[in-house]
Amino acid sequence: MSILNQRWVELAAVKRELAERDWFPGTSGNLAIKVNTEPLSFLVTSSGKDKRIETDEDFLLVDGDGAALEETKLTPSAETLLHVEIYTRTNAGCSLHVHTVDNNVISELYGDEGGVAFKGQEIIKAFGLWEEDAVWRIPIIENAAHIPALAADFGQYVKEDSGAVLIRNHGITVWGKDAFEAKKILEACEFLFSYHLKVLSFKQAKSLSLRA
Ligand SMILES: CSCCC(=O)C(=O)COP(=O)(O)O
Ligand SMILES: [Zn+2]
User: Fold this and answer.
1) What residues are in contact with ligand 1 under a 6 Å CB criterion?
2) Segments of the chain with pLDDT less than 70
3) Which whole-number Å values give the CA distances from 83 to 34, 78, 118, 184, in the listed order?
4) Ligand 2 center to 171 CA (angstroms)
5) Residue 39: is the preceding peptide bond cis (ω within 30°)?
6) How many angstroms does the Cα of residue 134 sit away from the middle of ligand 1?
7) ipTM entry
8) Atom of ligand 1 at shortest distance to CA of 98?
């Protein structure tokens, strides 16, 4: 199997798993996987499709500017430039972007602080942080309709070969050395968001019941 086909199969498997989690509401989300480093090329999801459905037009190959490398009627994801930032700034091999209610609520709750930090949670070992007092901080950037501006802002936080950035009231983009690592980071982030929101709501319910 060619590298291109191998990467297609890998990305299709991730897409299937994220779809099973219902992480692609309303056609949102986009995924990418690197095919070649020099010159850069990567597969990215076609824009505007229902990513829960599997077709042979799910991905297209683009270059380091995010432009299609083959004659196609498909349009690369509107957010391809964010994936370009990742592959041009790091050695990451896969990048994933999803919109969930939990990541949107967390981004709104902590957006004014420019980030959200998690500590004291076993799952942050998924980010390669093994120390007892380790802190995992996810930057939060403001959303922008102008994608080149959004990508430029996003790029400032793309420094390591794996990471995550929340886009306020939009979604999360994560990346890792390969599809396995990117998915692990995404799942760990969403676990932390869901846990945190549950704790906040139970604490509020408890304080209300103590006041009653
Ligand atoms: C209805 S979601 C709005 C666009 C977006 O944020 C997204 O993630 C999906 O865009 P794409 O062009 O990748 O389909
Ligand atoms: Zn999006």
Assistant:
1) 26-30, 45, 47-48, 77-79, 97
2) none
3) 10, 10, 25, 18
4) 6
5) yes
6) 33
7) 0.99
8) 8
**Pairwise CA distance, residues 151 & 81, whole Å:** 6
- pLDDT tens string 120-166: 999 999 999 999 999 999 999 999 999 999 999 999 999 999 999 99
What's the gap in Å between 48 CA and the centre of ligand 1? 6
Lookup: tokens for 180 = 């396995």
Q: What is the DSSP secondary structure assignment for residue 99, as one 8-state letter?
A: -
> Could you tell me the distance, in angstroms and rounded to a whole number, from the CA of residue 120 to the centre of ligand 1?
34
pLDDT at site 22? 98
Has this prediction a pTM greater than 0.90?
A: yes
Atom of ligand 1 nearest to the CA of 99: 8
Contacts with 189 (C-beta within 8 Å, 6 or more apart), sequence order: 103, 138, 164, 172, 174
What is the C-alpha to C-alpha distance for residues 119 and 25, in angstroms, rounded to an integer?
A: 29
Nearest ligand 1 atom, CA 48: 14
Where is 137: in which H helix or E strand? strand 135-141
Q: What is the pLDDT of residue 212?
A: 85
Residue that has been written with the tokens 């430039």 in this structure: 81
